[in-house]
Structure formats: structure tokens, C-alpha cells
Automatic annotation (TrEMBL):
It comes from Microbacterium arthrosphaerae. It comes from the Bacteria. The lineage of its organism: Bacteria, Bacillati, Actinomycetota, Actinomycetes, Micrococcales. This is YciI family protein. Belongs to the YciI family. It holds the Pfam family YCII. PANTHER family: BLL7171 PROTEIN, BLL7171 PROTEIN-RELATED. Residues 30-108 form the YCII-related domain.
């Protein structure tokens, strides 16, 4: 099963947070093949929102909603089940400093469930 794991943090990340903790989490998961890819995202202020209204493409800069938390990064996990995804997420340093959202990839009927 594949899960997208969103790394969620406050708009004002803690400058004291040690990034090496994340590196210690990433290494073994990459080696085991449980983590397919992961990236840190640019700040929400760098985002562009796209929508179509009345046949016109409208864009705006910055986050689309007033919020105290933003998605700071993501990881794609390949695991046996949700329990394994939870166990992996619980070891991520951001589980202590922010939160992690696990969302399964949609399995379409023609993909041979």
C-alpha cells in the first residue's frame, strides 16, 4: 500500500529544531525501500492557487486559507498496511514538533486490487 504522508507544522517553524533528527529517520527508511520519496516544500507564501471561474483561469499568491499550520513537506511510503504507516510516522521527528497526516493513494478497480 502507498501512503502520502504530509508533514504539517506551524507557520512559524521552531528555529531550534535539529534537522539531523529527520536525516536519522530518512536513512533507514530509504535503505529499506519503505520511503519512496520525500521533499521539503518552499514556504506557503511561495504557493500559487489556481482555479477556473466563468471560463477564466484565476491565480493568487500565498496560502489559500487563513491558517496557523501549513504543509511543510511530504513523504511517499510503500508499506504493508496502515498500522505500519502509523508506526513509521510515529518515529518522524515532526510527530513531536508538529503533526503528520497519512492518506492512502486511491486504488482504482482497473489497477488489479
Amino acid at each position: 500500500m502507498k501512503y502520502m504522508m504530509f508533514v504539517v507544522t506551524s507557520l512559524e517553524p521552531d528555529p531550534e529544531r535539529d534537522q539531523s533528527d529527520v536525516d536519522l529517520w530518512v536513512g533507514p527508511l530509504d535503505a529499506s525501500g519503505k520511503r519512496i520519496i520525500g521533499e521539503v516544500l518552499a514556504p506557503a507564501s511561495e504557493s500559487t492557487v489556481v482555479k477556473v471561474r466563468g471560463g477564466k483561469v484565476l491565480t493568487s499568491r500565498g496560502p489559500f486559507a487563513e491558517t496557523a499550520e501549513v504543509i511543510a513537506g511530504f513523504d511517499i511510503l510503500e508499506v504493508d498496511d496502515l498500522e505500519e504507516a502509523i508506526e513509521i510516522a510515529s518515529r518522524h521527528p515532526m510527530a513531536r514538533n508538529g503533526q503528520l497526516e497519512l492518506r492512502p493513494f486511491m486504488v482504482w478497480p482497473d489497477e488489479g486490487e
